[in-house]
Amino acid sequence: MIFPRASGVLLHPTSLPGKFGIGDLGDEAYKFVDFLTDAGQTYWQILPLGPTGYGDSPYQCYSAFAGNTNLISPQKLVQEGLLSEDETNQKPDFSDDRIDFGSVIDWKNQILSKAYENFRKASDSGLNEKFESFKKDFAWWLDDYALFQAIRKNRNEKPWYEWETSLKLRDENALAEARENLYEEIEAQKFYQFLFLQQWFELKTYANGNGVKIIGDVPIFVALNSADVWHNPSEFKLNADGSPKVVSGVPPDYFSKTGQLWGNPIYDWEKMRLDGFRWWISRIKFALQTVDVVRVDHFRGFAACWEVPGTDKTAEHGSWVDAPGKELFEAFRNEFGEELPFMAEDLGVITPDVDDLRDSFNLPGMRILQYAFGADENNNYLPHNYIRNCVAYSGTHDNDTTIGWYDSANRHEREFCFKYLNSDGRDIHWDFIRAIFESVADTAIIPMQDILGLGSEARMNLPASTSGNWNWRCAENCFFEELAQKLRELTKLYGRS
Fold first, then answer.
1. Residues 4/446, Cβ–Cβ less than 8 Å
2. FRET pair for 144, CA 20 to 30 Å: which of 120, 193, 436, 449?
3. Tell me: the pLDDT tens digits for 376-392?
C-alpha cells in the first residue's frame, strides 16, 4: 500500500503519564491525541496491546487477541459507577517515571476484581446487555482465553505445559469440569476484556475523529505460554507433550554475539496451508478492528525463519527454514483487498527473498537514521538513499534514544553525522527529526523520547536483555503547546500535514 506523505509519533500507552503506576486509556491518552492533533501528526504508533507475561514484554503475550488489562483506566471505571473514588485512591505510592510492574499488576488485579464484584451486584441492564453482546461477538477467541487465564490463576500461574496432562492436552471432560468449577473466574476474565476493548474503542474513535490513525503492531510469533498455542497446538511445531520442537530467534548480530533466543514456538506452515491460513486471517481481521494500520513485526520471518532446537540455550546453532510468505499474503489480499494497510519491519538479516516478498505486495519497509553513520555514503539508512515507499524513524523501541545514541557514538560516527546533518550536536534530536521529515520517505515516525530530547534513561528496550525494559514513562505535563508548535512547524514545512 502506498501511504500519503505524513508523520507520527511512537509512544506505547504504558508510557503515558498518570497517577496509577502505568499509562492507561484514561485522560492522559486523550491529552496525547490532542497533542498529536495540535502538532499536525497523522499517526500514533503503539506496540502490541496484548496481556504481557514474564518479563513484561508486549512481544511475549498470553494472547494474540486479548488486551492488556493493566491499561484499563481506573478513572473511567469510576465514571461508569464500577468503582468509587475511595477505591481508586487506596493505591500504592507509585513512581511517576517508572513502572513497577509487580506492584501495578497486583493493584490492578485487585481493583478489577472489585469492579467485577460491583458489576455483579448492580442492576445496570444497559451494561449487562453490552457485556452479553460482547461475549457473543468475541466468543471465537474469548472463551478459550478466559478459560486459559482462569486455569492458570487456579494453578498458581503455572504455564499450561506444566498443568496436569488432561488439561495440558485439552481432554474434553477435563475442560468441561474446569468450565464448571471456574465459572465465576472465567466470567471475570471476560469482563476485564470487555472493559479493555470498550475503553480502547472509545479512544480509537476519538483519535480517528481528530484525524489521527493508529499504527498497531502484530508480532510474527506468539508466546509458548499463551492461549493461542494451548488452544491450537496443531498449528505449531510441538512435541507430543506440548514442548516445542524448535523455537524462534535470530542469529548472532549487532545486538548479541550468541544471537537472540526468543523462545517462541514456530508455526507448522504445512498444517496452516490446509485451512487457508485460517488462524492468521482471524488474527489480522481482528487487528484491523483495533488499529488502522498494521506494522508486521519481524517481516523477514515470513520469507524464512531462524529455527533453533527447542532445548538449546542460545540461538547460535539454528538454521534458516523457508516460510510460505507469498501464499500467506495472497490469502490476506483475497480477504482484505489488494491494498494491504501493512508496514513491514524489515530490519536484520535481509536477503533478496525478503525484499521480493515485501515489494511483491507493495509494502513499505523501515529506515532507521541511527544506523546511517557507521559506514559510507552508500548506506541505505542515509536519507539521500531513501525511497518514497518506506517508513523513516530516528530510532525504534529497540534502539537507544537519539541523544543516548549520540552520547555513545564513536568519533567516526559523530564526525560523519555532523557533516551529513550540518550539525554541531547541541540539538541532535531535532537535527535527526528534521532529516527524517525532509526526506522523501512517505511516512516519518519519531519516538516521543526523541521529541522530548531524553537520554538513555528513557530507552524502552535493550534487545537480548532480560530486565529493566518496557518501564519508561513520560513526565506529567510533557504534552505542552510549545513542543506541539515546534513539531507542527516542521511537519508543515516538509509537507507532512
1. no
2. 120
3. 999 999 999 999 999 99
